[in-house]
Specification:
binds adenosine-5'-triphosphate, 2 domains, 11% strand, globular, alpha/beta, Rossmann fold, binds magnesium ion
């Protein structure tokens, strides 16, 4: 890592143009400006995870508040869970924000001092791209773990985001893995066994986050068998809940036959567009259905989020002051605090 890399990143939204004219980076939902707090309102961030900047703040006030926020990111330490928490990020629907959620939650946790392992289980290799790790064909990858018995420790790479964040990349080889696995012994347990070995040798790992492809094939099945918790990102769009029954059914089948410790513990609303009524309706419906499993912060649709992977980055490093980054930081913080609060939780999120 270079010195420049270790420096906090300053929001491009505010460094290249005033935030007011850029029209982004400012939560719309901020309330009246409290006296004496300058540009930063704590009203909408009770967790203190990040500042909400008042719409009436001057461009200089915004820049100051965001720069402060960016500097603070790396200084805070979030609570460690009592045991390694293993998440599978799954939704067989394509493009709902699985990868974006996996890498940004992982980056947020890693930047706050937690030990995180991301496993890219999607042949598209999008998580590897976003974390900036090598994943050309020929690179040691999750394919070698699943089909050649390689050890996770030997193929995991440290991501630039944080020294405590590692990623097992996916290469194009993985595209054939679903079929190749079919004829293998213990085909559903391959990832679980590799992960058990890894966690035995490094019990200090706080979070494992597995990014799944948009299908319910053998790769996703391996992820569900290896994990203890399922994180479902749900896009605030038409047909958001369509197909969820199939995912929940699969989770139930895995719980009853292959991995009794698995549970859906977390739901995250993604790509929320506050200008549409539909987004609110979907959010209400999801909260009505999943209750407390839904994280309080909702991820807004934000162009910085979609730009970041093009630069081999998460939005948290690409533009830490953007609304997308702030929301992912808040979501990750809540996830970490829930894990710590349930101090008696075992690896499955189930009461011991
Ligand atoms: N909050 C957001 N705001 C704007 N764009 C977003 C947001 N979240 C995700 N995107 C973009 O939407 C697209 C789909 O997101 P992502 O790749 O995370 O979904 P996915 O569920 O992993 O997709 P797949 O099923 O193909 O694996 C990507 O181009 C991503 O950059
Ligand atoms: Mg993906």
């Amino acid at each position: 890592m270079t010195d420049a890399d270790s420096e906090p990143q300053v929001s491009r939204e505010t460094s290249t143009e005033p935030a007011a004219s850029a029209g982004v980076g400012v939560p719309r939902e901020t309330g009246a400006r409290p006296p004496g707090l300058g540009a930063v309102s704590r009203e909408t961030s009770p967790s203190g995870a990040s500042p909400a900047i008042h719409p009436e703040a001057t461009p200089i006030e915004r820049e100051a508040a965001q720069a402060l926020h960016v500097r603070n990111i790396r200084q805070q330490q979030w609570p460690k869970p009592a045991h390694s928490r293993i998440f599978t990020v799954a939704n067989q629907k394509g493009g709902v924000g699985k990868t974006t959620t996996a890498v940004n939650i992982a980056a947020a946790l890693g930047l706050h001092g937690l030990n995180v392992l991301v496993i890219d289980l999607d042949p598209q290799g999008n998580a590897s791209t976003a974390l900036g790790v090598e994943h050309r064909v020929g690179t040691g990858s999750i394919y070698d773990v699943l089909l050649s018995g390689e050890r996770i420790a030997d193929v995991a790479q440290v991501a630039e985001v944080a020294p405590t964040l590692r990623c097992v990349p996916a290469t194009l080889d993985l595209a054939g893995a679903d079929i190749e696995l079919t004829s293998q012994v213990a085909r559903e347990y391959r990832l679980q066994r590799a992960l058990d070995t890894y966690l035995e040798s490094d019990p200090d790992v706080d979070y494992v986050i597995i990014d799944c492809p948009p299908s319910l094939g053998l790769l996703t099945l391996n992820a569900l068998v290896a994990a203890r918790e399922v994180l479902i990102p749900i896009q605030c769009e038409y047909y958001a809940l369509e197909g969820l029954a199939q995912l929940l059914n699969t989770v139930e089948l895995v719980t009853s036959h292959l991995n009794p410790k698995l549970a859906v513990t977390t739901v995250l609303l993604t790509m929320y567009d506050s200008r549409t009524k539909l987004a609110d309706q979907v959010a209400d419906e999801v909260r009505g259905h999943f209750g407390d499993l839904v994280l309080t912060p909702t991820i807004p649709r934000n162009v910085r989020v979609s730009e970041a992977p093009g630069f081999g980055q998460t939005v948290i490093t690409y533009d830490a002051g953007s609304r997308g980054a702030i929301s992912y930081l808040e979501a990750a913080r809540e996830l970490a605090e829930r894990g710590a609060a349930a101090g008696t939780m075992n690896k499955g999120g189930n009461e011991q």
